[in-house]
Amino acid sequence: MTRRFTVRSHLGLSVVGVALATLTGCGDLLVDGRTLRIESTGTVEGVVFLDANGNGNIEGGDPHYPNLRIQLLTADGVSVVDTATTNSSGQFRFPTAPVGDLRLAADPLSLSDSLVVRDLSDELFTVEPGRTVPVVFSVSFPAYQLQDVRNSVLPGQSIFTTGIVLNQRNQPGDAVVHIRDGNTYLRLTQVALVGLEVGDSVRVRGRTAVSAGQPILTDAAIFQLVPRVTLVFPVAVTSGAATTAMGGTLDAALVRIQNAAITNTQVVQGVTGPYLHVTADDGSGPVVVVLRNFINFNLGQINPGTSQFTSATGLLVPVQDGAGNVTWQMTPRADSDLDVDQIGGG
């Protein structure tokens, strides 16, 4: 706020000089009707971090974010007062910020990848003469609901989403984890090794992509929110519905088939070596159940023509043939996902 001081002319220049020395940084000085403007400034300085896990908190492991252009704006947000760029330590500084109400904004064109600015309030802050205003904020990736990740986010975007874990991240395994939110499911690939339990509530950072015509998140990092927050139950389907993922609506879901005769087995090269592909049919159409080599299955009980899956639970994974046709296979998570018996119960 500007304050005006009137000094009578008969005081003389020496008094005016004292007044100037006393009032520097406080506002305008009126001398014989003339306004002598005294410029006042403060400092605005801060630091910018990359919020790597999306929790909204600045933590020791979060890296500094360099080369971000920061704008110091007038109170109405229209005029740019000054600009600065974060250094290699994520720091920026406005050493001569004018006194009064101001705002800060980050230039989105200086953000890389899919990053957005967080924690930079659009509320006014006040700069006082000779004082420093400290500012800390972060940049991070946008967060989407799982349904939006599947339906509207374009491939190639780095994002956050949340969900419930449907399977553990096996070691060595194939680095694949499935999550769900309500009736929406998503497959995560190239998942960084992390301890997970089925039913954990998690936040996921990854890059959107498409595999066999279905959306996925790849290069995924998973952060536990609440351990074992819920029980996980498979969706009951026929073998015919499993092989189409119910028209694609159950892509990446955890499903269960029952009383499906084992009609064929075939060894196929998988991500980590030979996998056993078991074809099973409950009369509605065949589905391939993939027994991956890094899980200890009891293969001796798998006998085409004489045994059946009384119950088989697995995650649905799409595969695409050379003509672009997509079908789904079931991938059991453990030997306990399979209940094998002889046909007729013998």
What is the 3D form? elongated
**Can you summarize the main beta sheet?**
5 strands, mixed, barrel
Give the terminus-to-terminus CA distance. Answer: 92 Å
Strands side by side in the biggest sheet? 12-13-14-16-15
Q: Provide mean pLDDT, rounded.
A: 88
The level of helicity is under 10%
Radius of gyration: 32 Å
Segments where pLDDT lies below 50 for 5+ residues? 1-27
Structural class: mainly beta
Q: Tell me the number of helical segments per DSSP (H or I, 4 or more residues long).
A: 3
According to DSSP, the number of beta strands is 23
Determine the strand fraction and express it as a percent band: over 45%
Element-by-element helix/strand order: EHEEEEEEEEEEHEEEEEEHEEEEEE
Descriptive overview:
The structure is a single chain. The protein is mainly β and 346 residues long. It contains 3 helices and 23 strands. The strands form 5 sheets. Strands 12-13-14-16-15 form a 5-stranded mixed β-barrel. It has a 5-stranded mixed β-barrel with strand order 18-19-20-22-21. Residues 1-27 have low confidence and may be disordered.
